Every structure is written in structure tokens, then in C-alpha cells.
Task: structure prediction
Amino acid sequence: MAEHMESIKRQIRSISSTQRITNALKLVSASKLRKAKSQFLESRRFMDQITQSMEDIMHDAYKMPSVYIEGNRTIKTTCYIVITGSSGFCGSYNGDVIRLAERLMGESDHDSVVMTIGSKGKDRFTHTGRKLVGFHDDPPDKITFAEAQQLARKVVTRYKAGEFDEVILVYTNYINTLRQQVTTERLLPVKENKNAKQDTHLIDYRPSNTAVLEYLIPTYFDIRLYNATIEAATCEHACRRSAMEAASDNANDMLQSLKVRYNRARQSRITDEIIEIVSGADSSAHN
Result:
């Protein structure tokens, strides 16, 4: 009985120690989530404005550079930009992104290359033998705009050079604190705007429509990739906070159950000791 009670006490100490860790991680993630969410909401408003401006310009500028327009070349190779985290304790966050990317590659009739942000994705695709054309090991919330721009420009340059013919972004979309969804977005090539007619454009672009768009499209690509990393970071912190909260709650339930078992074992031992004392007293009286 004493050995059984000591085993329960060891379990209680171990789970209590784990619970302290999960509680600490939950608090840290909650703090990071507040900061990341604020940054994401601000960047999303900015991104919406940029997107609308780009759509207006592309609608007005009828001479869109053909290299960026869908249907101007056969798609033989697709580049997947996969955004994951660089650490665990965030539930299925990393696994969901990687599984979707692998499923898309498996179902595609084209060759596939990968660019990763976050070491979890890089480790996985390196292990499975996928061709990496670029990577950033730090988690998405650590990437700067300059670093995102460097990755984006590398993708655009290789796309224009014909190394791949399609660019698909795989990341996690932030819906709210409790709900995130892995999604994809094709960044290149873009669909041609059928409404953009030569006789409807109102603005005269200098030095030319093509030159302006040649500058704007890579810039838009930079901002879109950076915005996606901010959104992915927000989702990662939300997933980690939820996972650590669930782990802390589970640990608390286990502790309550173990404490009940311990108290019952202690009461049983006391009862056994009382019975032994009473039995010993009865034996002495009879003698």
C-alpha cells in the first residue's frame, strides 16, 4: 500500500510540473497572440488597400506584361511557398499545412519545387526529398519585411526566367482566435482582366504601362508574402494558446483524479492500521 501511495505521489509531482510548463506556455502564447493579432489586423487593412489599388491599375493599364498572365505558357513546374512554424506545442498547426502541401504535390501532374518559411516545413520536405529553391528557418513572426522581400524577389526572378511556371502559397488563414483554416492561393500567373480595354484606360503611365506594372507586380508580391507570414504567425500563436490551455485543463483533471485515488489509498491504509491495532488488542486481551 505504501509503495502504491508513493507511486501516486510521483505521478502527481510529474503532472504538476508539466502543468506549470503548459500554463507558462499558454500565458506566453496569449501575450504573443495579442501582439501578432494587432499587427495582422493592421497589415490586412493596408493589404486590402494595396490590393484594390493594384486591381484599379491593372484594370486601367490594358498592356499587362504577358509573363504574368495566365495562359501565356504551359505549366510544367509549380513552386509551392509553404509557411509553417519552427517549434511544436501548437496542436496540428504544422501538420495540417504540411499535409495539404503534400497532397497538392501528390495530386498535381506537374513537377514541384518548394520554398519554406519555418523550419518544420523545411525539415519535412528535406526528409521526403523535395527540391527546395529557398527557405527561411526562423518562425514567421521573426521574419522582417526585407527578408520576405528577398524571398519574394527570388521567386519572381525564377518565375520570369522560366524555372517554374506557377506559384502557389500554402499557409493558415486566420478566421478568429478559436478558428484557423489551412488554405492555398495562387500568386502567379494572374488571371487576365477581360474588362481592361485600350479605349477605357484613363491614366497615362510613364514611362509606360508595362514599365509601371513590371515594378508594381513584384512589389505587390513582396507585400502579399509578408502579409501571409504575419497571418500565419497569428494562427500559430492562437493554436499554441488553445493547445496549451487544453493541456493544462487535462493535467488539472488528471491531478484531481490522482488526488482522489491518493486519499482513498491513504484512508484504506489508516483503516488497515486501525484493524491491525484492534486485532492486536483483542489478541492481548484473550491471552
